[in-house]
Amino acid sequence: MTKQEKAAQILSDPRNQQEEIKALQDTIYVIGGKWKLPIINSLCNGNRRFRDIERSIPGITTRMLSRELKEMEANQLLKRTVTPNSPVLVEYTVTDYCQSFGDIILEMIKWGKKHREKIRTV
User: Fold this and answer.
1) Longest CA span, the chain
2) pTM for the whole thing?
3) Res 100: pLDDT
4) Contact, 51 vs 71, CB < 8 A?
5) d(Cα 39, Cα 74) in Å, to the nearest integer?
């Protein structure tokens, strides 16, 4: 599928700029910020427990991770499962809804690598 065909499938005809901006703002609200995409990436790489996620993301604080996980759960990007063993086991997993970001995340990683290379050569 060409970019034009993909755009025609997604965008309305005639174009509705307000609708497009609102859709972009909704996306940025849900996955925006410094930590959400790294958290999704960590979960997709197999980290399920709080400490494992925390250790896999340099610079994130315990408080920030806790806040972001709660917000992501509210937006149905991840599922929190509590197993009442002794000690209690809490695990986080991405939802199918979150996995729908997979192609977007891969494209962002690809673009980020190209960008980093571009600014190194300047």
Assistant:
1) 59
2) 0.81
3) 87
4) no
5) 15
